Amino acid sequence: MIAPEFIAEVDITSETNTQLTEAKNMKQIVRRGLGHRWVLRIKTRVLYEHEHRPLYAQLTALLGRYGSFSQVIPRYSYPQNESLTDAKVRASVASGSTSIPLEGLPANVSNIITAGDFVTFDHSKVYLVVESANSNGQGETTIRLHTGLYETLRPTETAVFQGVAFQVCLEKDPITLKRKAKTGELLAMDLKLLERL
Predict the structure, then answer these.
(1) CB of 142 within 8 A of CB of 112?
(2) Does 153 lie in the same domain as 105?
(3) What domain of life is recorded for the organism (predicted)?
(4) Which of 51, 110, 157, 184 has its CA 20 to 30 A from that of 95?
């Protein structure tokens, strides 16, 4: 929804549910809870009035946290290896799994998928690849993800690496329109967005 040319700065935060308890003897007990989401903080460049008003109207129409939209992040929504196209899931993969077998890639390519690439499947969750992977002679590889799958994957389901879109909502209901008091000049927008799961 926010045009890539409007975006000046992006912070991508990985939020997990980790609980740490410290005993009297200073021993730490760490538990990993379920769940993960991405938090995006997008700062726009200073927008002209004809750019700002429609964007402000679109964001306001979401009714705060109620509505959601797809957001592509400049550079990060695309793989580091420019020859990487979308692939297919090679076999059924159960929810919770972090290893995903893929096929339909260019054959015999080192680092065809690079650690730090984002991927999504036929559901809205975005995943992060944590280890680089090479393709074999049949164009197959297995990727390892940061967090377990939210849904079971079916064979031939698409693994999207190009134009990965985060499904997000606003963190807060109110949206503030800011202007300089003396000149009326619009200021840059600073938005915090939560991944909608």
Answers:
(1) no
(2) yes
(3) Bacteria
(4) 110
Clarify whether residues 156 and 86 are in a common domain: yes
3-state secondary structure 133-188: ECCCCCCCEEEEECCCCCCCECCCCEEECCCCEEEEEECCCCCCCCECCCCCCECC
Direct distance between the N- and C-terminal alpha carbons of the chain, in angstroms, rounded to an integer: 18
**β-strand partners of 16:** 36
| pLDDT tens-place values along the chain, 197 residues long | 899 999 999 999 999 888 888 888 888 888 877 789 999 999 999 888 888 889 989 998 988 889 999 999 999 999 999 889 889 999 999 999 999 999 999 999 999 999 999 999 998 999 999 999 999 999 999 999 999 999 999 999 999 999 999 999 999 887 777 777 676 667 788 999 999 98
